[in-house]
Amino acid sequence: MGAAVSDWRLARSVSQLGQLGVVSGTAIAVVLARRLQLGDPGAHMRRALAHFPKPDVAERICAEFFIPGGKDSAASFRAIPLPTVTPGRLAIDLMVAGAFVEVYLAKEGHAGEVGINLLEKIQLPTLPTLFGAILAGVDYVLMGAGIPRTIPGALDLLAGGQPASLALNVEGAEPGDLFVQAFDPGPYLPEDPPALRRPKFLAIVASATLAITLAKKCNGRVDGFVVEGETAGGHNAPPRGQPQLSPTGEPIYGERDVPDLDKIRALGLPFWLAGSFGRAGKLAEAQKLGAVGIQVGTAFAFCAESGIRADLKLQALQCSRAHHAGIFTDPLASPTGFPLKIAQLDGTLSDGKFFAERNRTCDLGYLRHLYRKPDGSVGYRCPAEPEADYAGKEGVAEETRGRKCVCNGLLATVGLGQTRSGGEFERPLVTAGNDFENISQFLQPGADSYTAAEVLQVMLAS
């Protein structure tokens, strides 16, 4: 769903209703810092931070970022350190505490289960984010957009309070190169640390081949899979074979891209199906195919409890009700190189006019690529940054064509967008799945919003 769309409020609501509520771990450090700078309405961030195992960390974060009453609407958010291979203490503090806060609030006051979702391609914040979630008692970790072979082993170590490391994908790495990021949880554990529980790990896959690889070659236990079809929201796996585009410029998927459920069932691990399952009767359909359940994203993304701005939800529901809600699977927008499903909404970066008007900048850095510099050190470049900057880092200028700043766009979608000098503000970038056109099905007559409970009522009716 993007950063903070499936936030603690939504995950908590779903979990209280007996299902698995999942928070997004994407850019969680920025989310925490910006919520504090907005004055922390309801004092939820500070309430959760008061339970962080190391009070000095919580106090340091609040001293750095909390603004009583919130920042002036014309003022910019304070920048936080960009993710790097060797992050400083403040950056690590924010990543660990951000995940802790989100999971703590999602689990607060009930016994339901809560998961956290991360993208494998966003490697640099992974270990601190996972540990912060484990500190808060997260029940599941879900990860896709890559091949998360070493995450199960990292979960084992982190749950034991032990240091963990992650091999990094570095473009241009030479034989014998080994680029690793290490994380030591020690500074975030009290003197007499409590026993931590290792969360279950669900890999998000789009093919039986990847599921088989992870089941057999991960460095720890895989507890199941979420099997996504190409109609699922957000990032999609690229089509297999030679890329082809439709007349409208979208990737063309074929039979080779349909996951082989017979092979996945043969692994003997539970799996959930995702991609256009947000309708009545789809749960029963999935269970007949051997799945234990379904993953629903788009339907929840536009419900009352989600983090998406209220004006964007209203526009989306009006489009759906009028039968002209559109999704474009953009093969170029994401710096990851994965196709990205973008909702076509007025005033957002789905409009080429606003994309063309935006001054290219890269000041969040979550989707930067790591590359090997001539001296053997690691450099950082993003296809969505200014073309000259990218080319100056040995990047091919053609790779910047059509790339959007997904980081800034996703944060603007949830009301945490940056204000630039001169009053320019970041435009939202709203992602959703093909079920976007059907979200008005959850509206009661005369209503202009719906709740997570109403979604589940439809999902569980069959």
Descriptive overview:
This protein has 462 residues and is of the alpha/beta class. The protein has 16 helices and 13 strands. The strands form four sheets. A seven-stranded parallel sheet has the order 1-2-3-6-7-8-9. It has a two-stranded antiparallel sheet with strand order 4-5. Helix 6 links the parallel strand 2 and strand 3. The radius of gyration is 21 Å and the shape is globular. The two termini are 25 Å apart.
> What portion of residues belong to β-strands?
5-15%
Could you give the count of β-strands?
13
Structural class: alpha/beta
Number of helices: 16
Radius of gyration based on Cα positions: 21 Å
Quote the average pLDDT: 94
Could you describe the largest sheet, including whether it forms a barrel?
7 strands, parallel
Please state the overall shape, judged from the principal axes of the Cα atoms: globular
How far do the termini sit from each other?
25 Å
As a percent range, the share of helical residues equals: 25-40%
Which runs of at least 5 residues are low in confidence (pLDDT < 50)? none
H/E series, N to C?
HEHHHHEHEHEEEHEHEHEHHEEHEEHHH
- How do the strands of the widest beta sheet line up side by side? 1-2-3-6-7-8-9
